[in-house]
Design goal:
Layout (H helix, E strand, L loop, with lengths): L2 H8 L4 H9 L3 E3 L2 E2 L13 E3 L2 E2 L7 E6 L28 E3 L7 E7 L2 H8 L7 E7 L7 H7 L14 E6 L2 E6 L6 H8 L4 E9 L2 E2 L9 E3 L2 H5 L4
Parallel strand pairs: 7-11
Antiparallel strand pairs: 1-2, 1-3, 3-4, 5-7, 5-13, 6-7, 8-10, 8-11, 9-10, 11-12
Helix pairs in contact: 1-2
């Protein structure tokens, strides 16, 4: 990796700002001053700035309790994004592992590990997502079997994969799916003549939303939570 890119990834500095610092002679590679931004840096090299060693960044993994009104994109001109709720450096390097609609609350996973993100979001990886659903009308018992068999969504060419529905109360249920089609949960209930009024995601794979997290709060994932997603 180029020296300027290496320093930029570790810090909040742009490549242009890094090149300016290099010109001052404050950066050393293996205890020798280096002003060349194109110098190749390997894992064996020691890079220091103003005498302090620059360590390669570790991958980051967070869970966020998403409130309604926020969108799961990195930038949006009309709405605040979930990344704005994080007090972390290098926000532009973070990725949102699976989206929730603007009015949906609950568990959002955020990382800068692309392979881990893919393992969470790829339909081929069968990473299940569990939602708590409140509907406009009472949920008919036969909906359980319909969802288990797969339902045809409007605009699709094949039915959804089998989903597990547990009716909790007359119009409240827990739904577990292994896909991530656009507005899938809302469209599934629409396909059986009902309408989703409230939607909350509380689990992705084996990672369960921390009950201690208030709306808008976040925390780092534990090592066990990270490793529960098989990359």
């Amino acid at each position: 990796m180029r020296l300027d890119k290496y320093i930029s990834q570790i810090s909040d500095l742009s490549r242009k700002e890094v090149k300016r610092i290099l010109k001052t002679g404050l950066v050393t590679v293996n205890e020798e001053v280096c002003k060349d931004p194109s110098r190749h840096i390997s894992d064996a090299d020691t890079v220091c700035a103003e005498g302090e060693r620059l360590e390669p960044p570790c991958a980051r993994y967070f869970m966020l309790h998403k409130p309604a009104g926020y969108v799961c994109v990195t930038k949006d001109k009309d709405h605040p994004t979930v990344l704005e709720l994080l007090d972390e450096p290098n926000l532009d390097k973070l990725q949102i592992a699976g989206r929730l609609d603007i009015d949906t609350t609950g568990l959002v996973l955020i990382t800068d590990d692309g392979k881990w993100n893919h393992a969470v979001t790829s339909p081929k990886r069968d990473c299940k997502k569990t939602y708590l659903v409140t509907t406009l009308r009472d949920i008919e018992p036969e909906t359980i079997n319909k969802f288990s068999a797969g339902v045809m969504l409007d605009g699709e060419f094949k039915p959804t994969l089998p989903a597990e529905l547990e009716i909790l109360f007359a119009n409240e249920a827990k739904l577990t799916i292994s896909e991530g089609k656009y507005h899938q949960v809302k469209r599934m209930f629409a396909a059986v003549g009902n309408k989703v009024e409230e939607l909350h995601r509380n689990q992705v794979g084996e990672i369960v939303l921390d009950e201690d997290l208030e709306l808008g709060d976040y925390r780092e994932l534990s090592a066990d939570e990270v490793s529960s997603v098989k990359v």
